[in-house]
Design brief:
Strand content: 15-25%
Helix content: 25-40%
Strand order of the largest sheet: 3-4-5-6-9-10-11-12-13-14
Distance between the termini: 35 Å
Radius of gyration: 21 Å
Shape: globular
Bound molecules: S-adenosyl-L-homocysteine
Number of helices: 12
Largest sheet: 10 strands, mixed
Order of helices and strands: EHHHEEEEEEEHEHEHEHHHEHEHEH
Amino acid sequence: MALKDIKSMNLAELEQEVKALGEKPYRAAQMYEWMHRKLCGGFGEMTNISAAFREKCEGNFSFPVLRVVDRLESAADGTCKFLFELPDGNVIESVLMKYRHGNSVCISSQVGCRMGCRFCASTLGGLTRNLAPSEMLEQVYEIQKLSGQRVSHIVVMGTGEPLDNLENLVRFIRMASDGNGLNISQRNITVSTCGLPDGIRALAEEELAVNLALSLHAPNDADRRKLMPVAERYALTEVFAALDEYYERTGRRLTFEYSLVANVNDSAQQAEELAALIKGKNCLVNLIPVNEVKERGFKRSRAENIQNFKNILEKKRINVTIRREMGSDINAACGQLRKSYTDRLRQQEGSRE
Ligand code: SAH
């Protein structure tokens, strides 16, 4: 029988499990605290739980922990990139960014991704599997332990499409913001999506207070389809209808991410079109000079085009920022560390054959 993942259980579920194994229900709160507040590394560390019950737990539950296989720190801005190995041997990456307003961790939500965005490194190998809630939590826990600094913000913007793993994502958000755990405010959690309307609506139904970011990258369907296969499935009108619903339910300001690619989506006309598309919305546009991925061939926009794009939006009174590039000296961009690691492994395996 497969062991149940104890770190993906909320407190109420853990109480049920503990009772079913013949222990007092209050033990569940103690164990929850060990796992989600003290961030312990295994049952062995739970010193106020009897050895006999800990042993019983070992026989009934899995206790997923991530192992750091690589860690790179940017000399430029202190951004730290982590490559973690999951219990099944897959690897994922996460990033710690230090801002004035606090420490933010960018987590992966899947191993690989099946959305196929043409400029993105994370999707080159397709989707391997979803991450469990515990594996999303662990990225934050391990980084907090390794850095010795409290994490105050989470962005679900690493590898994967979070709304393609919605159930686990929602559980993760509830547990990360639980007062019995790390107690990270939902307002400090941002979920970034390539734009799955059903997923956006389903997330709205959960009545969470998390921020939503849409990876927009183009002001119309035709241009968007050149960059994102998902735009073949859903028209922007459908995506925006779902976003409006999300905004009505939550009142949270929307973010539009727009990665600028030279000669594809960075013209003055496209800036005007973007301004018209989002006019009147409570939103922020985040302009990101595209990170060049060798296999993809897209080039980043020239600095003056980026500035010009921003000026046009500002003239139309749209809130806009150019994303400060974090850790560009450490391969920090979007799945590139994981990719160089798996490429290396593959090469080694190839040379052994
Ligand atoms: N699947 C989700 C979250 C992961 S991608 C989403 O699409 O939003 C996080 C962000 O990084 C997205 O805006 C994505 O479009 C962007 N991104 C991916 N590869 C990039 C690259 N090479 N350069 C710039 N931005 C990139």
